[in-house]
Amino acid sequence: MRIILYGLVVGISAVVTFGLALVIWKLSTRYRLYPKVRERDVHTRPTPRLGGVAMFIGMVVAFAVASQLDSFSLVFTQPGKVLGLAGAALIIVLIGVADDIWDLDWVTKLAGQVLAAGLLAWQGVQILTLPIGGYTILPSYFYLGITVFAVVLVMNAVNFIDGLDGLVAGVALIASSVFFVYTYLLQANAETEYYNLASLTTAVLIGACIGFLPLNFHPAKLFMGDAGALLIGLLMAASAIAVTGQVDPGVINQPDKFTAYFLPAFIPILLPFAVLVVPLLDFGLAIIRRLRAGKSPFTADRKHLHHRLLDMGHSHLHAVLIFYGWTLVVAVGCLAFMFMPWYAASLLILVGLGICTAVTLSPLSGRKRLEAAAQATDPELETPEVAQFDGLDSASEGVRE
Fold first, then answer.
1. What's the domain range around 238?
2. Least packed by Cβ within 10 Å: which of 15, 217, 231, 379?
3. 68 CB-contact burial (10 Å; exposed 0-12 / middle 13-18 / buried 19+)
4. Helices 316-336 and 258-275, packing angle to 10 deg
5. pTM for the structure as a whole
6. Number of domains comprising the chain
7. Does residue 157 fall inside a structural domain?
């Protein structure tokens, strides 16, 4: 029964999101409500980018329906948290839509993100303790600051990888599905309440991603824009922070409960960062790259990881699937520590990462074969594919033109 109700929430969020996304796409296409293609963009034709609005409304409707179900009544006994989450989401969507239309400066966007994260934390969705040696009590403003920092970090990390069709929605769908399984297992093992804000938020997000993907998968008809990417990051961070309150980290010092509670106490912190390892890596590299160039950390460029995958020779679809693969391996591998011996879970991660690495680097071996062929072949018999790797041909391009 519990899974059925969560499935109902997922279905409502998916159906409403898909229906509204379809309407937004048709209206945007008819009235040309889309920006010009930018130099850093991968797509070659103007595409509407207001899909985040459809996702937001789909989530709101799903939450509204859940509020009328008796089973979810416990979630809404603390309306401040729900309203805080809704208010933060609204701020983020408004900032995202404004940026998609008018291209806001990074200071304004960052201020909006901090405001949304601050509202979320102020209404009670914040980190309250760290599972280090039992309860680690620190000043309240410290946890408030950590919460705001974590939420803003995750939002920007997700937004940074929003450069390929279906990339963010697919990665979020995989990560959120694994995280939902985690919250469900945690509820069963720790005997906590099955109907809680973390699980409900994750289910609503899963539904929105499912509903949006049909119009966003390659070749995309509709983009989610900053409104959608930042919204996904906000909800992923909020659900991870909310679930930390379900685990009593004080029991990790009790030997008889160490195995059952040690990993659950840390996974709420580790799993969100694990499933976002690629976006966070991309975010970190971008910040370092731009600061070294003397630019703002939020200056746009065309040197993200998904751009590099395309430059390596991967197709658009292959690059997206590679991101899916990395996310799935790390997320499932991290979750596996809850129900497998540590060495088995570690082996699972290593094998998965090895396969992902081989697939990611596969175009390089192909380039080497073509380079070798370019050096050994008769110039008169060269094919265009081989010729492009011939240094002499490259040097003579100006003469041919």
1. 2-256
2. 379
3. exposed
4. 160
5. 0.82
6. 1
7. yes
